[in-house]
Amino acid sequence: MDTSFRLMPEQASSLAPQVDALYYFLLLVTAVMSVLIAFLIVYFAIKYRRGSPADRTQGPHRFWLLEASWIVIPFIVVMVMFFWGAKLYFAQARAPAGAMEIDCVARQWMWKFQHPVGNAEINDLHVPVNQPVKIRMISEDVIHSLYIPAFRVKQDVLPGRYTTIWFQATKVGQYHLFCAEYCGAKHSEMGGRVIVLEPSQYEAWLAGREVAEPPAVAGRRLFDQLRCNGCHLGGALPGRCPPLDNLFGSTVRLKNGQTVVADENYIRESILRPAAKVVAGFEPLMPAYEGQISEEGILQLIAEIKSMSPRASEPAAGGKTMPETKNGPANDEGAKQGGQR
Questions:
Q1: Lowest mean per-residue pLDDT among 195-209, 232-246, 297-311, 324-338
Q2: Do the Cβ atoms of 172 and 196 come closer than 8 Å?
Q3: What's the topology of domain 215-329?
Q4: Full DSSP string of 48-96
Q5: Which residues of the chain form CATH 1.10.760.10?
Q6: What whole-number percentage of the chain has pLDDT above 90?
Q7: Could you tell me the fold of the domain covering 1-45+95-212?
């Protein structure tokens, strides 16, 4: 990890040059406007100072070209900022298809990362170079914020709702990771490292660690322990509990007539508060699990539900509508909603 002084953090991700380019443009506009305004203040203060020979007998004149210029030119500059910033925002908000997905649970005062093959680590994150990585994050207590300066990415980590961040590291090395949201007495200690490795080194790192169960495997065990399989699998209770096959990424029709995409946030809510969004054609029979399952356990259940959906690797947005049965939609809201388990 480079500890030498830098005016700007090292550029170590695919988006970092784009973020810096926009930043330098904003800095240039700010500098030009500041110098221009300062010059005009000094110029007019001297020209029209008390006792100066300036002619003050003439009434005010309207210079339409000048007035139009100081309206149109700033408008154009601001629109350039807006559209440039919006394009970069959407690029940062949408992870590329096929990105490696890593789960992150934040708590005072640590980061726990869960790799898809089962490897878990605390405050360190190993990733391969030139591979898009999407991190799905949630907090167990207060608001945190995952910040990796060298990658120019930062995203709040919220209790009760999943947020995501993605990056593609372009340089092998170690980079600082910080919490950028004051979260308590030891906020300053809530840091870590992102270790970027060559693909072969990353595979060797995975193979050289004691591997825990993959999230989907642990989720299946928890799924069975909570007796979810008795209601949601194999039509155990037809007409009473929505099935989970092909649920993730689909569009679920609710009892109130609305529709919702079955993404991670929807599944989480359905597990903890199943009566919040009841599937059309079913009654809210499923017990609430709020306060009974850890955030890691919920992520494991979501991984299990995603494994039941061949479309799970595709973006959840814009999923197809679930087919109707005589009792309602064929798919459940993910270990959740009305009449579940």
A1: 324-338
A2: yes
A3: Cytochrome Bc1 Complex; Chain D, domain 2 (1.10.760)
A4: TSTT------SPP---HHHHHHHHHHHHHHHHHHHHHHHHHHHHHHSPP
A5: 215-329
A6: 45
A7: Immunoglobulin-like (2.60.40)
